[in-house]
UniProtKB/TrEMBL annotation:
<feature type="domain" description="Mur ligase C-terminal">
    <location>
        <begin position="273"/>
        <end position="398"/>
    </location>
</feature>
<dbReference type="InterPro" id="IPR036615">
    <property type="entry name" value="Mur_ligase_C_dom_sf"/>
</dbReference>
<dbReference type="InterPro" id="IPR036565">
    <property type="entry name" value="Mur-like_cat_sf"/>
</dbReference>
<protein>
    <recommendedName>
        <fullName>UDP-N-acetylmuramoyl-tripeptide--D-alanyl-D-alanine ligase</fullName>
    </recommendedName>
</protein>
<dbReference type="Pfam" id="PF02875">
    <property type="entry name" value="Mur_ligase_C"/>
</dbReference>
<keyword id="KW-0547">Nucleotide-binding</keyword>
<dbReference type="InterPro" id="IPR013221">
    <property type="entry name" value="Mur_ligase_cen"/>
</dbReference>
<dbReference type="InterPro" id="IPR004101">
    <property type="entry name" value="Mur_ligase_C"/>
</dbReference>
<keyword id="KW-0436">Ligase</keyword>
<feature type="domain" description="Mur ligase central">
    <location>
        <begin position="103"/>
        <end position="250"/>
    </location>
</feature>
<dbReference type="InterPro" id="IPR051046">
    <property type="entry name" value="MurCDEF_CellWall_CoF430Synth"/>
</dbReference>
<dbReference type="Pfam" id="PF08245">
    <property type="entry name" value="Mur_ligase_M"/>
</dbReference>
<dbReference type="GO" id="GO:0005524">
    <property type="term" value="F:ATP binding"/>
</dbReference>
<keyword id="KW-0067">ATP-binding</keyword>
<dbReference type="GO" id="GO:0016881">
    <property type="term" value="F:acid-amino acid ligase activity"/>
</dbReference>
Length: 431
């Protein structure tokens, strides 16, 4: 009870300080939401804007009613340390009453885990650019909403933050995201996607190989007569192309040159746990997608694995997809069917993932190639036993399944886990 009261007081004070800070320094703000690709888009947009401006972005996935004020104020997460939160309040006051070198741009990731999350934020935050990534049919966290449609409506509340002369950047391949266009004047919209009628069009997606292993992806971008090659190193899938396109749209809206923008991604570092390529034991290749999972994201990841041509076996390690409510069994079955058609070996983690295993078997995968584990540690041990040279291993699951532990078990250099893997903070390690 006291803990909840303290939390409410802290949130109230941080939001108050954030309002005063925004009023004092008047930064421009990009707000990003969607069910897939928010963090990747945030990082890509930061890469573009920081080439010309002083920019601050949300750390990790600071996308909640407490994470957003922390980003605005440039403060750390206090987790369960009451003294850090008290220091944060005082540091926020210093920002208001003393002169500071403050960013010209803030790039904010905004999430919606529960009904009202974004609507509450929209009451005090005003933005210059809104970016919508992807709104799939069955969104993550759907079990906390009355329906999938209500979850999508909650994401749509972000449009209330957009200033009258703001810019709306939207995924043109996503029909649900496009429904939000009706609240914006046509001249203030920039669309992106693989659809030919997008303002910024992607095409010719290819996997780049080195020493018979995937190294990254390449594609072309067409914009107003320019056709530009773009390379992304160290990651795979359209999951990383869409964020780059959204970042290009943001840069173009601010008068930056698209050819110069494209070059920025030669050195761009994609976020951990999102289709990240990591060297594995026995000369294997790990596709680390362990940050989180949802039906649409899992299917996209498996389809990406299907496009990899390295000659070795394709192993899929899938953990439970959480927070799907009444959609859970059906969506796990869909993922299982696709896995059975594509993968050579399947390892599942968790009680819900048993439906993935069962359906993979029904889809044609031999029972001897399916292994069911209760936790990520045992899944990692099983992988060590069966992995062979040239295997490509896709690892994915919801946050609570801690699938990064599977990656750690089979990565060539586990001492690099703090740089390469998600959830390496002390708070996570103590759970």
């Amino acid at each position: 009870m006291l803990k909840q009261i303290f939390k409410k007081i802290i949130i109230y004070l941080l939001i108050l300080e954030s309002k005063l800070t925004l009023k004092k320094y008047k930064p421009k703000i990009v707000a990003i939401t969607g069910n897939i690709g928010k963090t990747s888009a945030k990082d890509a947009i930061f890469t573009v804007l920081s080439s010309a401006y002083f920019v601050r972005k949300s750390e990790k996935s600071f996308n909640s009613e407490i994470g957003i004020p922390l980003t605005i104020l440039g403060l750390p997460n206090g987790w369960s340390d009451i003294f850090v939160w008290i220091y944060n309040i005082f540091d926020g006051l210093k920002l208001i009453f003393l002169k500071n070198h403050y960013p010209k741009w803030l790039v904010l990731e905004i999430g919606a885990d529960r009904p009202g999350d974004i609507e509450k934020i929209s009451k005090w935050l005003k933005t210059d650019i809104v970016v919508i990534t992807h709104l799939p049919e069955i969104p993550v966290h759907v079990e906390f909403f009355k329906s999938a449609e209500e979850a999508i409506v909650e994401k749509g509340h972000i449009m209330k933050t957009l200033k009258d002369r703001g810019v709306f950047v939207v995924n043109n391949d996503d029909k649900r995201a496009l429904t939000l266009k009706i609240s914006v004047e046509e001249k203030k919209i920039i669309t992106y996607g693989f659809s030919n009628n997008s303002d910024i069009v992607a095409s010719n997606e290819k996997i780049i190989y080195k020493n018979n292993k995937p190294k990254g992806i390449s594609f072309r971008v067409d914009y107003k007569g320019n056709s530009i090659p773009v390379n992304i190193n160290g990651a795979l899938g359209k999951q990383h192309i869409y964020p780059v396109l959204s970042a290009m749209a943001v840069g173009i809206s601010q008068g930056l040159n698209i050819i110069l923008i494209a070059r920025l991604f030669d050195e761009h570092e994609t976020p951990q746990g999102r289709m990240k390529i990591i060297n594995g034991i026995s000369n294997s290749c790990i596709i680390d997608d362990s940050y989180n999972s949802s039906p649409a994201a899992a299917i996209e990841a498996i389809n990406t694995l299907n496009n990899i041509d390295c000659g070795g076996r394709k192993i899929v390690v899938l953990g439970d997809m959480m927070e799907l409510g009444g959609y859970s069994m059906e969506e796990h079955i869909k993922v299982g069917k696709l896995t059975g058609e594509i993968a050579d070996i399947l390892i599942t983690v968790g009680v819900r993932a048993k439906y993935i295993a069962q359906e993979a078997n029904h889809a044609g995968m031999k029972e001897r190639n399916i292994f069911q584990c209760l936790d990520s540690e045992s899944a990692g041990d099983k992988l060590i036993d069966i992995i062979e040279e040239g295997d490509t291993v896709l690892i994915k699951g919801s946050q609570s399944m801690r699938m990064e532990k599977v990656v750690e078990k089979i990565m060539t250099n586990p001492e690099k886990k703090y740089r390469l893997l998600v959830r390496q903070e002390e708070e996570w390690q103590n759970r």
